[in-house]
Amino acid sequence: MSGGIQAEKELLRARVGALRRGFDAGWVREASARLQAQVMGLPEFLAARQVACYLALPGEVQAESIVQRCRTDGKALCLPAFDCAKRVYGFVNWPADAVMVRGPMGIAQPADLQAAEGEAIDFVVVPGVA
Length: 130
Fold this sequence. Notes:
Blueprint: H1 3-21, H2 25-41, H3 43-47, E1 50-52, H4 64-73, E2 76-83, E3 88-93, E4 100-102, E5 108-110, E6 123-124
Parallel strand pairs: 1-2, 1-6
Antiparallel strand pairs: 2-3, 4-5
């Protein structure tokens, strides 16, 4: 990727991040509830056996209802996590009883990084910045 495009992407992310930080917490909760309900109503989500999700940062679309629904429905969950030994991000299994730790970016992740089988992931929930 050229330096110019990368610089443009970083500028756009910074601008959108600043806008996102300005959102009212109540609005974020309401918008998150609507979006989560839409996701959980999708036939692809309903049929999924393993779901890759994320732990939301403040100002991001919250995903806790999706996580709860997966747990209730017996869907396997996985999260993105950074493996310091391998110096790579990847999806790891996230059992309900997992001990969580802060990853290198300050985002919670399971302490036991058991790689998720990519082919087994049926549905991925991704927060978009811009």
